[in-house]
């Protein structure tokens, strides 16, 4: 009987140590960001490490996000989620994740859901260019890149065409449209939970739920179409896991693998960085000794890209155009040296202390393929000098996978620790503070 309290004490001590280690790293990073601002470094913003400006905003809606966080943590501490069916767990994760993102956005009032849509620098400003000729828009997308909004220049035509299609079916109210985009983006939560369950077991997925639903990066879920990319990428990984299950063979396996590739290819029409999630699929297939499934997923990923090319949009040419625009419009005015360091600070703040625990235990989890794909995308972005502000929303498709090892055992095949309430709570408080003090351009 004496061993149980001892183990609980050790777990609590490790959790406090992870939280303190993360805090020291985050504070050190904030000092670096403040130093860059004081030295008038070429940052393109006075609110480093983020883009935007600082302004304290407190109102009646400010209490909504803390109420959601307290409810999730209380239900977790009372063990209310341990006895629910898996379907109920997924539904709760979706509702809680959606509520967390929406209530954080509502700190700014209804504009929290609409300011992105009304910005002339965002995708909605280009919808009128599509008009009645979407095929013409696709054909001339790369050639007309200089006339697009800032957001569209750095992305394939998928986001604009998505908004155009919604407008065509009558979804033109900005509040409803903002809620709809957030609701679709929040599907990432149950999808990631399914992936964790498939790779490391249901118990680990249940314990990961609060970490995922109360993540600090939810601040940007309600204001970025990159959340749609996150949902598509998560669905692709779930399909790849289904394809590589031990009992799934033959046509069903190839069908799931093909679907996984199709989803990655579709995500690539929304974001040039989405294919990095395909690396997670590759790692999953090799880890499960189903390498041949890479062929089906590879073919599936090419189909949307080739389909777009038949319609007139060459993905590789669009990527080159985006890089050329970035090199002329952004790179000369934002220091690659400073932003390389500051982007790491954003990563620490957006994922919270769960990132530190996950990085420390990555070797102890079978979910390591997820961290490889997401981690490679982040490392490449920084190494290539592309991370020069705005990564808080550009990296949304990768953030959820970087913290999956936060609930991993302390050693391989060891006993799973409980949900880390301190890490979750600190991350939630951080999100509330950032949302109350930072006004983003999105």
Automatic annotation (TrEMBL):
Q: What is the official name of this protein in its record?
A: Integral membrane protein
**Top-level division of the source organism's lineage:** Bacteria
Q: Does the keyword Cytoplasm apply?
A: no
What keywords are assigned to this protein? Answer: Membrane, Transmembrane, Transmembrane helix
Q: Where are the transmembrane segments?
A: 20-39, 59-77, 89-107, 175-196, 217-241, 253-279, 291-316, 336-356, 368-387, 421-439
Say if the entry is tagged with keyword Membrane.
Answer: yes
